[in-house]
Amino acid sequence: MTVLVNVPSADVHRGARLGHGAFYGDYREQRQVGALALAEMRPTVPEHDVHTHTHDDAHFLLLLDGAYLSTARGMPEVCTTRALVLNPPGTTHRDCFRGLDGRFFTLSIPTDSWHAATEYRKLTQDAMRLPATALVLATRLWHELRNWDGASSLAIEAGMQLLLDAAAQPSPSEQDGPMWLERAREQLHDEWRRTPDLAELADTAGVHPVYLARAFRRRYGCSPGEYLRRCRMERAIALLHDRSKALADIAATCGFVDQSHFTHAFRRQHRCTPAQYRALG
Length: 281
Prior knowledge:
Blueprint: E1 16-18, E2 26-33, E3 36-42, E4 53-55, E5 58-65, E6 68-69, E7 78-79, E8 83-87, E9 91-93, E10 96-97, E11 103-109, H1 111-117, E12 128-129, H2 132-146, H3 152-167, H4 172-175, H5 179-190, H6 198-205, H7 209-220, H8 224-240, H9 247-253, H10 259-270, H11 274-279
Parallel strand pairs: 1-4
Antiparallel strand pairs: 2-3, 3-11, 4-9, 5-8, 5-11, 6-7, 6-10, 8-12
Keywords: Activator, DNA-binding, Transcription, Transcription regulation
Domain HTH araC/xylS-type: 182-280
InterPro entries: AraC_XylS_family_regulators (IPR050204), Homeodomain-like_sf (IPR009057), HTH-like (IPR037923), HTH_AraC (IPR018060), HTH_AraC-typ_CS (IPR018062), Tscrpt_reg_AraC-type_HTH (IPR020449)
């Protein structure tokens, strides 16, 4: 195993460049899988001592515990819930923890591997928060690090590809579309607790239901019903991190028929049950 070197506080200066697998923190667990570097870390540098710095290589950062300050797209000013951020190569920021009571998992990808990945998918050029469904993938990779065995290296390589797929951006043709179609999508996204019929969505969009259904699948790669299920699953995954909430209550809140229906849908999409995912930590 290649040993990664963390960055001591004495080296924290404005304009610093952090090499492959280097972060401001203390490594609790670390592994190298080919060119990929994995680590579970705790912050060691106070917020006021962290200045603007640049990461040479790309990395995923999974926030496990603590209050994290990030400028990544989609992140709140201070994040205190489980979150997954992708920073592409050359990201310059001042992301850090507020206080030293935190924990995070990182998966670092060399620049040449990142560029190879862009041959098969369109990836972001800006730091961004990934959707909640990607949290399940990242959490399973963190669990592999904590419970290493002979098959873990293969699981890490395959899991990294799935994370990159989750981070892939739509093509320009998929991004460009009529506002009426976006209004229908926003209704599903914002009113995910209830189930509208196709005629209502079509009325919102101002088009015929058949035309809406065809245009929706062409642009978003799924039917309106499938998109609504994705929205509900996103909310359910976020609620699973609150251990005070019972699985049955989460199922009811997120529009599933019952806990069994929620468990079946979760297992089909993520290859584990909600209880198993919650047990990963």
